[in-house]
Amino acid sequence: MGMKDKIVGAMQQFSKAIVVPVLYLPAIGLIMVVCNFVTNANIVAAVPFLGNEVIQTVFSMAYTGLNSIFTNLGPIFAIGVAFGLAKKKKEHAALIAFMCLYIFCASQSAFLTLTGQLHEATGNGQNMMLGFQIVDMGVFLGIIIGVLVGVLHNKYCEKDLGEVFSVYGGTRFVFLLCIPLMMTLAVLFAFVWPPIQSGIAAIATFISTSGGLGYFTFGFLERLLVPTGLHHLLGSAIWYTDLGGVAEVAGETYAGAWPIALAELGDPETVKLSLTTIFNNVTLAKVFGLTGAGLAMLSCAKPELRKKAKAIYIPAILTSCLAAITEPIEFTFLFVSPILFVIHSLLTGIFFFLLYFFQITCCTAGGIFETLLYNVPAGIEKTGWPFFILLGLVQLVVYFIVFRWFILKFDVKIPGRDDSDDVKLVTKKDYEAAKSTNAAQVVASSSTDNALGMQIYAAVGGIQNIKSIDNCFTRLRIVVNDLDAVDEAALKLTGSRGLVKRGKEIQVVYGTNVSKFRKALEDYMEAEGLQIA
C-alpha cells in the first residue's frame, strides 16, 4: 500500500469515527426545533392552549437540556471518536477517553494557575470545560483526545504484562500510557494552541469573508467527496468546529455552523440568521436538485423500459426529497457516468453560491418536512424560507435540463436506457435463479433464524475475508482481504442500493436503517462462533 493509500485510509477511518457522535446531533436538533416551535410567542398566540404553564415549562426545560449538548461538544466528541476508532472493547476506549479529558483539563488548569497564566474570567482564549478553566480548544480538544486514545487502544488494549502485573495489562495499560501523555499535552497546548487557534480563526474568517467562493467550494466538495465517505469529515469540520464560525447568542458562545444556527433559531433577539447558516444547506440539492436529476433520468428511459425505470427512480426521488438520503439516486448515475456526478457537484456548489448571493439564511436539516418545521415558525425575515423554496424550484429545473441534455447527448447508459446486466434491476426472477444456483452460499437455509446475516456474510466472502466491520449514516463499511471475493450481485439481494470500493474497504449502501444490516451480520457471526482475526 502506497503512502497516498495509507493517508486516504487513515482519513476514511477518522471520517467513520467522527460520524459516531454526529449521528445523534440531527435528532437532538429536530427535538430542539419542536421545543422552540411550542414555546414560540407567535405560535402560542395562534394556538392558546400551548400557553399552558406546564407545557411551556416542560418544553423550555427540554430545550435548555438539549442545548447543553451543543455547548459541551468537546467531551462528546472525545468519547464518540475514541469509541468509533476502537476496533474492539469499544466501551473501554470511550471510558478511557472521558477520564483522559478530565486529566487534561485538571492538569492544564493547575498549570495555568501555578504559572500565573489563568485569566480572572473566561474569554480571551480561555473557557470552561468539565468545570475547569483551560485554553479554549472547543471541539478540537475532544477530537484530538479521541484520536489519541483510539490509536493507543487499538495497539495496546490486549497488551499482556505477565501474571504478576496482569492487573495493569490490557485496557488498563492503555490508560496508564495516557496519563503522562495527557499531562504533557496539557502543558504543551497551553503554549502551542493559542497560535494554532489564531490560524484556525484566520481560515474561518477567510471562508466566511471570501464571498461566494467559500460557499461554492464547500458545496462542491461536500458532494464530490460522497463516493469516498470523506464528506463526513469536511461537513463535521464546518458544522461543529470553529471553522464554521464562532458566535455569541443570548450570552452563550457557540462554535460551528449548526450549533450557531440552532441557537439563533431559538433566540428571539436574533433578527436574521448568520450567513454561516448557509453551510447547513446541503438539503437544497437533496430535496430539489436530485429530484430534478431523477425526473430527467426517468424521462430519458426507453419507452419499453419506462415501467422498469419508474421502479428505480420514483422511490429514489422520494427517498432524497423526504428523508434526504441521496445514495439511491446518486449511485444510480455515479457508477455509469462519473462525469455526471462531477456536474452534480458543480451545480451544488453554484447553488450554494446563489444562497450567499441572495443572502438566504434558511436553516435546513433532513428532508422537505423538517426544513419547513425548522423555518416557518421562525418567520420569513429571520430565515427567508420562501426564497429558499423558490431557489430550490429553479435548481430542480436546472438539474432536469442539464441532466437530460447530458444523458441524451452522450447516450449515458443509466437504468432504463440499457437493459444489460450492468444496469438491470434485480427482479424476482433473478432472485429465484440466484437461490437455486447459489443457495448454499447466499440464501440461508431453513436451519438458521438469521437469513439476512448469513446472506451478507456469504456475499462479502466469509470470515477469512473480513478484517473489520463498521457503519456510518447509510453504509455498511467492511475492510476485506480480497475485493474479488465480494459478490456484488449477492449483496444486491440483501437490499444493497450500491457498492463503493476504496482500497481494501467496501461500502455497502443500505440507507438510514443500515444498523439493521450490521446487526444481522454481527449476530450471525456471533451465533456461529465466528470471530474476526
Rg of Cα set:
25 Å
Sheet with most strands: 4 strands, antiparallel
In terms of per-residue confidence, which ranges show pLDDT below 50 for 5 or more consecutive residues? Answer: 420-448
Shape: globular
Side-by-side strand order of the widest sheet: 5-6-8-7
Distance between the termini: 20 Å
User: How confident is the prediction overall: mean pLDDT?
Assistant: 85
The number of helical segments is: 22
Strand-helix topology:
Blueprint: H1 3-22, H2 25-39, H3 41-46, H4 53-70, H5 73-85, H6 90-114, E1 126-129, E2 132-135, H7 139-156, H8 171-209, H9 212-224, H10 231-240, E3 246-249, E4 252-255, H11 257-265, H12 283-299, H13 306-323, H14 327-334, H15 338-357, H16 368-375, H17 380-383, H18 385-409, H19 428-438, H20 451-459, E5 466-471, E6 475-480, H21 488-493, E7 498-502, E8 505-509, H22 514-527
Antiparallel strand pairs: 1-2, 3-4, 5-6, 6-8, 7-8
Domain PTS EIIB type-1: 450-531
Membrane topology: Multi-pass membrane protein
Subcellular location: Cell membrane
Structure at a glance:
It is a multi-pass membrane protein. The chain is α+β, with helices and mostly antiparallel strands. The protein has helices spanning 3-22, 25-39, 41-46, 53-70, 73-85, 90-114, 139-156, 171-209, 212-224, 231-240, 257-265, 283-299, 306-323, 327-334, 338-357, 368-375, 380-383, 385-409, 428-438, 451-459, 488-493, 514-527, and strands at residues 126-129, 132-135, 246-249, 252-255, 466-471, 475-480, 498-502, 505-509.
